[in-house]
Structures
1.
Amino acid sequence: MPDFESAKAAYEKAIAKTPERKDALFKTLSGGEVKPLYTPADTQGDDYQKDLGFPGEFPYTRGVHTTMYRGRLWTMRQFAGFGTSTETNKRFHYLLEHGQTGLSVAFDFPTLMGYDSDHNRSRGEVGRCGVAIDSVDDMSDLFDGIPMDQVSTSMTINGPAAMLFAFYIAAAERQGVSSEKLRGTIQNDILKEYHAQNSWLIGPEPSIRIITDIFKYAAKSVPQWNTISISGYHIREAGSTAGQELAFTLADGLCYLDEGVKAGLEIDDFAPRLSFFFDVHIDFFEEIAKFRAARRIWAREVKKRGAKDPKSMLLRTHAQTAGVSLTAQQPENNIVRTAFEALAAVLGGTQSLHTNSYDEALALPSEKAVQIALRTQQIVAHETGVPNVIDPLGGSYFVEALTDRIEAEAYEYFKRIEELGGMFAAIDSGFFRREIAKSSFMQQREIETGRRKIVGVNCFDGEHEDPHAQPLLYIDPKLEEEQKRRVQRTRATRDALKVEAALRKLEEACRGKDQNVMAALVDCARVRVTQGEMCDVCRKVWGEYRKLAAV
Amino acid sequence: MAETSQAHPNRRHRILVAKPGLDGHDRGAKVVVRALTEAGYEVIYTGLHQEPESVAEAALQEDVEAVGLSILSGAHMTLFPAVMELLKQNGMADVLVFGGGIVPQQDIDALKKLGVAEIFTPGTDTAAIVKYLDAYFTAKDAQRKA
């Protein structure tokens, strides 16, 4: 056994002569100290079989599949959406023609908040941050010329996730595709909305009721669909550390699991359809460790809850490079940042990936920027050689030590959440929002004092060039008027009696306990009820939720 | 980051920080609220998902001298003018309106023509915002005395 103590002494002696760089920050992005060197002494507590195992084997630290990227590359899934469904449909065709392998829909704020495009609160917002979808008619236009039994589609929708899922099912029926054949994901993760992302309609408990109804409905009728994508991305983007992102996301996941079981589901009947979504930030090794720790914790916790099916224990995840790491200054540098982040996601073993476009700190991405982002993934996949070996950093003293550390941090948070009385009580007390705001301010301070260096922002900022000289995507304000006309046309050309009956049934389902809300929503979608009308029923039954708005 | 130790003589002023519209990106607004508070200003934060009417109403009720709007949804060309108009109707046309968000240059130019004083885009140091407001209030107070 080598003598690690004397190696450490030797380092200290050497550093006394030539000191460490004064301006360097020997801490991870999340604030964790890093030592100059990691050795077997840092990983001696690890038991290979118990803590790492082989890929595709419990506890899945090294990957969820036995063959990983040698069998199949990750899905390259670029998030897109703006304007009307017709505009976004064109971008989808463009992405598919350039080799993208899955679709991912970004919705505008009125859609995310459950308002129709002609609602007073929607003014100025229609089609701005994503595509406007008011009814099944828009969903049909969005997938015009795209066979819905052949693509997998991810939809970033939470408050009204059930409504948009219903539109998707109804639009597929119009294409002659039955729901059993549909593949994709709805984000449907309401808990992180209360922690960080802030798009909710109603309070946590009734939201969970709808979510468990979706689990039940999809288990029977849409069996290939991922009914939830439990998301750390927004928690991280709101300013959390990597450890908080991991801890809060897994705590959310375990809450959904427990609530599903309470609602009468067998754990193995729905746990395999839960999926995850993590941020992949700029601190390379910390991010890789986060993905590995996430898989290990999830596998162990799900098993502890009595799951028998190994599929229930797999943490399958999507990843997106960090929007907050993009800078408005010298925007081309963002291409480089995104490439490193993409590499970390792949080394972390992600199942699908979105790479950000370099101009996103300035506007929605232009077509050229989107193409470079996609090409970045293709270069990682086909040129670097990285996907040829499974978990190539497994066994690295540093990566294993970081994996252990971030895992321990997550368990600390699980304990604190429990001490606060569990998930709902912790949300209610504003715990998550305060923790995230604290970290966000700490990071802001590090950057503004120059302790944390951001190239082109607080160092190497060179000449002041005008970032707005970039050709940016411009959203025509006329689109809002066009979309308003579309939803009004839908309302004018449908069977009013059927609409009324479907809405009445929806309200009954919401008020009662025995009927499935998701099933009622699919019936509403079929007769062209708008999403604002569906969401109004929920707001009427359960009330709008305002509690956390100013925390 | 703004220095917190020395109290600036101008920092008794009241500022409303508001998030009009439907977007939930409140990281920037919260950081600005904290930086302005630490700089000694009296800051009122409206919270998320405000309508222009409620922002103008809060400005009136709280009797503020400046209103900062944070918008990251692209709805700035609708929401800024709406708030400006309502402030005017409330007899608060002299209130300083500034903002932050992802706003393209051509829109910044158009908003300034409407009377918006300044728009701070991503990457702005919070100290720059504090400095801007300090300068504004110093000039305003000097004018008042004169």
2.
Amino acid sequence: MSGRASTERLSRLLAMVPYLLTHQGIPLEEAAEHFAITTDDLVHDLELLFVCGTPGHLPDDLIDAEWESGRVYLSNADPIARPARLAIDEAVALLVGLRTLEQVPGLHDREALEGAMAKLSAATGEAAATAGAVAVDVRTDAESALVLEACRLALRERRRLHLAYLVPSRDERTERDVDPMRLLSVEGRWYLEAWCHRAEGVRLFRVDRVERAEVLEADGTPPPQAVSRDVGTELFTASPDDLVVTLDLAPQASWVVDYYPVESVEPAREDGWEEASLRVRLRTADTRWVHRLLLRLGAGARVVDPPELAVRVREGALAALQRYS
Amino acid sequence: MTSATSSSPGGAAAAARGARRTERLLNLVIALSATRRWLTKEQIRTAVPQYADCATTTAFERMFERDKEDLRELGVPLETGGEDPLFEDEAGYRIDRDAYALPEIRFTPGELAVLSLASRVWQQASLAGPATRALVKLRSLGVEPDESSLVGLEPRVRTSEPAFDPLYAATRDRAPVSFTYRRAGGEPSVRHVEPWAIVSWHGRWYLVGHDRDRDASRVFRLSRVSSAVKRIGRPGSYRVPEGVDPREVVAGTVGTVQTRPARLLVRSGAGLALRRRATSVEPGPGEDVVVVDVSDVETSADEIASYGADVVVLEPPQLREAVVRRLRGAAGLGPAQQQGVGA
């Protein structure tokens, strides 16, 4: 809708005027960069300011903007010459964000954080009280805090990390060197995204599964082919070389569809297993985790394909049962 | 109103409409800030040239109402009043320039960098718009942020629960609400709540508030709100008790669950995740006795069954039974005999 976009733009214009008034003669490019917009967008904004002004709208009443020379000059904008106060939601968003950052272990610049918080709270008054009613808890246990600190140090100084990392889906402890790219928290969990020298690819590591993180002396600049993945949409992506596994799921196991990267979901086949409600296909490089998933699903799932996997799961379950008898 | 389309002529028309709207709002802000006197609606209609687009007074009044809403959302303090107290129906409007302006603050480049990171916490969530606008406003102060010490740090919250927006707004406005709530394993019921705070804990959003039906404070998980959220009272119509730390309330309610120890026989070198959180490990030849705290039998049985023959439950018997049930299922055997009730 144009409604949302035009209030966003108004907000930017009201911020731009005080800035330009105190930065007379600033190059167009520099001003555009400051507000993270293109030079074309900035020129459109200036064209709009140029036709606005106090009632009467005679030339003397209008805002005067000049940018022909590539430098911006602005005048006659007294009524909106000062930066606008933050709306309540705006103040809440920033204050809650700051309080979230406050809990991040190893944040280098505590002083800046505290300074920003104090000044913003003082400047927003009542909104600061409202911000207290929204809290984001990203605290971690002491062990993860140590790992996070090591990751932060490695990121800041661009150094390589050595990780002892637990892979529960394979019940394996791995040792590897990685070049850290970023630390992100998603749904209350911390992840380190890094270039893994063992896998020669970008990998996402759950911080609570790192048993040990050691900052090495070696340079930790990721290679150019290390590209961040879009965490907003897909945390785990399959590769086309992976093996395809087809499973039938009974209703009590249908949650698998929401938790694992399934490639396709369809209703169960008439001629298949009578308890099935869904047939799903998964793509995976390693069937060990599927094996473990099937043991846990018990009577809730059956392997359709590949048949060797079905045999292995049955044998695994029988071997375990033997230990209980 | 026609909706904006993605085809280029429609898109261009929508963009032109958008620009005209921005122009109108900007002129409105300037007109109301420039005046010391109260401006009546009629005066505003002539002062802002874009209102000439409105053919009728009704159309103008509708547009003006919407514009006032937009300005309030942006935090522009619109005052209403009049020169003559005897003529209350002829209300006037103006913007108090001191209330409009951001108080004098100076941020250091380091502080502005932290603020910019703070605004990105909301990048994929409900308050993304206000967070971005806030930062743009602060950038008008002209400080260049120094982000060097914050490289690669991306804490994010998500607000995928549909109840987030209305419950956030109700918490902000202190407005009591009602909604249908589905308890774990219980029947859905309608609850009447005075919201105190909303908290994200372990990646999930919770509402803390006073439950009017139970006359006690309660914690609600937003993903279990199964109806629309309805306001049932005026904003500011109750008090939030002081000294309540909502994070502690949620952690105390949701985070403390009854646990009991489970003794497991774990093969050497296996069950690494279990060993990691073990309360004790007694080493033995080829396998160790590992003790872990268990809260939910079924959840723990899921995890333990997945280790197959590498992990065997010694006790408690309920956990042992739950694991055996899964393994029999995976082996294609029927449910075990003699363990059912009334055998």
